[in-house]
Amino acid sequence: MGAWGVGIFDNDDAGDVRDMFEDQLWDGQDIATATQAVLSQFDTNPHDPDGDQDEDVQAMYLALAALQIEHHALQHDVQQRALELIHKELDGWEEWDPTGLDRRVQVLAELQRQLLDPGVLGSAHQTASPLWRASKLPHIYNVRDGDLIAVPLDERQVMVALVLHVTVPQRLEPQEMLLGFYNTVFPSRDAVDVSILSKGFIDIPNYSLAAAITNGRWTIVAHSAQLLAESQIPELADRGVLYYKDKIVRHLSAEEQTHYPQRTILPDRYLEQILKKRFATPS
Known about the structure:
single chain; 283 residues; alpha+beta; three-stranded antiparallel β-sheet; 9 helices; globular
């Protein structure tokens, strides 16, 4: 299970649960049907008494509980399973990295408080409200192809990424941006010098969420049509389909998929962790 933070949805499995649950609601299904779809997909051995120890199952139930709470349709069985998992994790807190312990405990304590609030209980046969649907309409961010984004590694090092492509989101999909990171580190955002950015990137460009430019850390510092024109945009494979930007190039056989880089969407914090490990200097 890939994780980049201590929040309920700061891991791959919880994100997959949310995607499936919300897809079901968007298509008009009720909470009960969406919940059953998630359980059928992710709880592969629901009768295993030791299943609670599986990190994937834990992430699924905590995410499912949080989603039901959002709709004031918490089901008793999901409530009880989530409370059991929270108690077990809190009892085993000694195994946590001390740097993340306090924040994780706070997250679990808040979810526990919500689980015990009678106001979140409700019928599982309700569908999503119009207000929820309106909140899930795609948000378009003020970022465009050719923008240069400063991404801080620490207080003394800033990397720069070129935006190669910005997607047009559909339905529940978030807006994404295809980023290529330059192998040049600057001491601060103000010190970024576009003229010395060399051709080519440290790795094959891939996607992150456009919402990253609103987090207060990632900042658009310049725009360069020239760097964009000089850059090679990769073809990326995703579930048997080869894409160039948003366009389908062709379908791939299982063997062909191994010859192309896979399309991924890395959350900003997770991407920062990868860059820090690769480029941050010791303090």
